[in-house]
Specification:
By secondary structure, this protein is mostly helical. The protein is built from seven helices and no strands. It has helices spanning 3-25, 31-41, 47-74, 80-91, 96-107, 112-121, 126-151.
């Protein structure tokens, strides 16, 4: 389905949420490009809602990965001791996983998909994960939309 078909089927708001959720799972789908395109053709009054929906869609797409990694990390196995050592090593820098998650959500570096997965494996609290993803993606998308609107 093309972006036009998706928007026709789900509307602008539903389509934005869907594209964001799919892009959280499929790296070839770029929510950033979608939002820039939308910002160039949609009136400015609708953009804050679209930014919020895109951030929520990204969270909706990342949460299943996060929870799956939390579950895998809890399983016993031969790598359990190594994972416990990594968790202990990361715990020395109490706020580091949260700072890296937020920075990745805003900047995309290190790759957000990898950091989201690591957050689940390392046991970052679900509420903290959700808040940081929403805040970080919201900041990123706000900046993209603002730049695109100003340029267009």
């Amino acid at each position: 389905m093309t972006a036009d078909g998706l928007l026709a089927a789900l509307g602008l708001y539903g389509g934005t949420f869907a594209v964001a959720a799919v892009s959280a799972l499929v790296p070839l789908v770029a929510i950033d490009v979608f939002l820039v395109g939308v910002a160039l053709v949609v009136p400015g009054a609708a953009l804050p809602a679209l930014v919020a929906l895109a951030a929520a869609g990204q969270l909706a797409g990342k949460l299943p990965i996060y929870w799956a990694c939390r579950g895998v990390a809890a399983l016993p196995g031969r790598h359990r001791a190594r994972l416990d050592r990594v968790r202990a090593w990361v715990a020395r820098w109490e706020r580091a996983p949260r700072a890296v998650l937020l920075a990745s959500a805003v900047l995309g570096l290190p790759p957000f998909s990898i950091i989201s997965t690591a957050a689940g494996v390392l046991g970052v609290d679900a509420r903290t994960f959700s808040l940081l993803v929403l805040a970080g993606r919201g900041l990123r998308f706000t900046a993209l939309v603002a730049i695109a609107s100003a340029a267009g």
